[in-house]
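Side project, low priority. Logging it here so it doesn't get lost.
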Amino acid sequence: MNLKNLSQQISKIFLPRLGEVFFTAVFAAAIGLGPQMMNVDGDLGRHITLGNLILETGKVPTRDVFSFSKIGDPLTPHEWLSDVFFALSHQVAGLDGVVWLTAFVLALSFWLVYRQSLNLSNMSILALAGAFVGAGAASLHWLTRPHIFTILFTALWTIEIEKVRLGLKKGWLIFPVLMTIWANLHGAFIAGLVIWALVFLGEFFEKKKNWNQLRVLIWIGPASLLASLLNPDGLGIWKTGLGFLGNQYLVSHTAEYLPPDFQNPAFWPFLVVIGLSILILGLSQRRVKYAHLFLLGSWTAMALYSARNIPLFIIVAVPILCDLAARLLKESRGSRLVDAFLNIQEKIALTENTTRGGFVAVVSIAGTLILLMNGAQLDFQGTGNNFSSEVFPVEAVDWLEESDLEGNGFNYFPWGGYLLYRRWPEQLVFIDGQTDFYGEDLTRAYEKVITLQPGWQQVFREYQIKWVIMPANSPLTAYLDDSLNWDLAYQDRLTNIYNLLEE
């Protein structure tokens, strides 16, 4: 090989492709948002603690070991494998490792969206634009939580089922394999079966049916349903998931299940995608395949009903919209603007075909982990990946570790996971963010206490509460401040801790 050929081969590896640029950009954005992803939600501490327990014992607990309020009650560990991944990353690089894992999974997920958009549209500029807008719309739900694996598996599942729909894939065994892993990562594995049902119905209603494809499609559902039972709790995973979704009280008290608030700028990228959907469908001159229509319509409705479905809507919708937009552009040849765009696209495609890429992405992934493990602060705020003392009772728990408080403590719901992260197994919690386990009765009891509803003191007596940790400005702390039975044992700008005096 002469020097010229060698330099060409090297340049093919070192010059990034558009997809690689996109992957690196999303990865960098997620790394930069690390502290925000950690501190918006209070469940990360529980996930790390449960993952550590599984790694230490080699067993997945199916009964509660974290709370004194429901100790020993049957537990469905529907996120146990995600918890193990979080715990492993935490053991390797602390909270930086958790952020790195989250950033990698998110970047991979939306890179798959880009690839699927490119495969369907054959236009890299269109795919890149769609993926960037989609990632922006989904970023409101970028959190260090197990649902990131549902985002990834929704992308994988959608790609594979589209191959079946197009006749590019003749087998179905990959689907129960994916479902087995998915069902042990996160309870939203049900999304995969929803996607399957919509695609199957769409293909069934097509006038010109491909019976070979339908035969493959029909096996995917039952096989994947059975595969979902391969988890530590078997059928219990379905009872827990459907039971929670069917409980209007619990759903209405979980912020992420509420509809999107379009007055909040964080939801505007999602609104842009909705507007583009309407525009592209309205301009489309060709009939859209029923499967794609069913997917777009159903996931749009689900995303408008519950904000937590927005990332899944993006995963499903963006490739379809890119495909439809590409058809519109090709049908509009003759327009000066469209022709100029298509010419640029053709030139980019030629460049992309002569480039392998990969170097930039690998360096960014590995280099970021090395930097984080060596103490670099890569987040946008420059604070490092820590639990914020403005959100969690960091200083108060420091005090708790040195105090002699004993007995059952009543805790603020969003702080339950953090308390487990810092204090388990020495102290158990009253409640934490796993609402599907604690159920309506205990959640109502908690709400009764923090709002001082009639009978709230009976809850304290029933659970033998000896101390309380709550936000300093809560109604409960205001009452305890004036009570002769409770002593203010600790106070900072965020937290009050009270100790029950001898009655």
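Brief comment: Residues 394-500 form one domain.
Revisit when time allows.
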